[in-house]
Amino acid sequence: MFRILTLSCLFSLLFACSNNNEPQLSTQTEPSHTLEGERVLVTGVTGKQGGAVGLALLKNGYRVRGLSRNPQSKRAVELSALGVEMVKGDFENIASLEHALEGIELIFLVTNYWEHGYEAEVQQGKNVVDAALRANVKHLVFSSVAHADLKTGIPHFDSKYEVEEYIHASNIPYTILRPVSFMENWEYSREAIVAGKITSPFSLETRMQQISVRDIGRFAALALKQPKNWLGRTIDIAGDEYTMKQAVSLFSQITGSPVEFDQIPWAEYERAAGEEMTVMDRWIDNVGYNANINLVRSELADMLTLEDYLHEKDW
Questions:
Q1: Alpha helix (H) residue ranges in the chain
Q2: Alpha-carbon dihedral angle through residues 6, 8, 14, 20, given to the nearest 10 degrees
Q3: What is the spatial distance between Cα 249 and Cα 10, in angstroms, rounded to a whole number?
Q4: Euclidean distance between CA atoms 144 and 146, whole angstroms
Q5: 255 contacts: CB under 8 Å, gap ≥ 6
Q6: Residue 134 backbone class (left: φ over 0; alpha: ψ -120 to 50; beta: rest)
Q7: Among 304, 76, 6, which residue's Cα sits nearest to residue 313?
Q8: What is the pLDDT along the chain (315 residues), one digit of tens a residue?
Q9: CATH code of the region 2-312
Q10: How would you classify the pairing of strands 39-42 and 139-143?
Q11: Is the pTM of this model over 0.85?
C-alpha cells in the first residue's frame, strides 16, 4: 500500500503533496536589477509554488512579502534570511489579509484544495481577491491548473475554475497561469525508481505533460515584470511532454541501471489513493493535458525538460 500511496503523490497534480517538497533555497538571490517601489505579496510562500515564486522575484529585484500562518517556521525563517519579509496571515482572517496587503502593488495567489477542501478553497480565493481589490492591487497572478475550464468533473480542477471566474467578475487586473503536473512529483518515488521500478496504473502509452516548480516561479515573475504583455492573459504552461515508455527509458539512462515498469490495476490504485486521485489520473490517462509547449517556450525558452530536471537534481 505504501508503494501505491507514493504513486498517488507522483501522479498527482500540482496540489496533492504541495507542502511537502519545497524547492531548494539558494543564497544566489542577488537581484538582477532594482524595481524601486515594486512590492509583491506572495501567498503560500513556504510551499512549493509560492516558494519558487518568491525566489524568482527576489532574483528579479522585487521586494517580496510572504504570507504565512507561521512566520517562525523553519522554512519561513530560511526565506526571511534571503530577504523575504514574512507576515502572519490566514486566508480566512480578513483583517490579516488587509494588513498583509498594506503598501502592496502586486500579488501572487495560490490556493490549496488538498488542505482545505472544495468550498473552503473557493471562499479563500474570493477573500484574497476581495482584499486585493480594497488594497488597489494593480496586478494579481493566480496559479490555477491546466484545463480548469474544460468541465472535467475533477473537483480540484473545478474549484480552481470557480476562483478564476470570480477573478474575471471582479475586474481586478490579472494573469492566470495554469500549470500541468510537477516534475518534482517524481521525487516521491525516487528511491523505488533508483532501485529499478516505476509502478503506475497508467499504460506505457499514456502521455504526460509536466513542468518544474522553478519555471512556474519564473513565469509568475515574468508576468509581473511585463504587465503590458501579460495583463488579462490565461495560459496553460508545461515544460515537457513524453509517454510513460519514454520516461522509463529516460530514467534507465539517467540512473545508469535498467528501470522496469509495473502497471497495477485501477481498482487496486483507487483502494490506496482514493476516489479524487483516481478520477484525476483516469482523466490524465484518457484525455490528459494539452498545453501548447511551443507557445509556452516562446515566452520562456529555457524551461527545464524532464531530462534537464533529473540532471539538475542529481538523479
A1: 2-10, 48-59, 74-81, 94-100, 113-116, 118-134, 155-170, 190-194, 213-225, 227-230, 244-255, 266-273, 275-286, 293-299, 306-312
A2: -30
A3: 17
A4: 7
A5: 193, 194, 315
A6: alpha
A7: 304
A8: 434 444 444 443 333 333 334 444 443 333 333 445 589 999 999 999 999 999 999 999 999 999 999 999 999 999 999 999 999 999 999 999 999 999 999 999 999 999 989 999 999 999 999 999 999 999 999 999 999 999 999 999 999 999 999 999 999 999 999 999 999 999 999 999 999 999 999 999 999 999 999 999 999 999 999 999 999 999 999 999 999 999 999 999 999 999 999 999 999 999 999 999 999 999 999 999 999 999 999 999 999 999 999 999 999
A9: 3.40.50.720
A10: unpaired
A11: yes
Question: Which amino acid makes up residue 47?
Answer: G
The three grid cell numbers given for residue 287, joined into one nine-digit string: 484525455
Cell of 109: 495567489
The three grid cell numbers given for residue 254, joined into one nine-digit string? 539517467
User: Whose grid coordinates read 478553497?
Assistant: 121
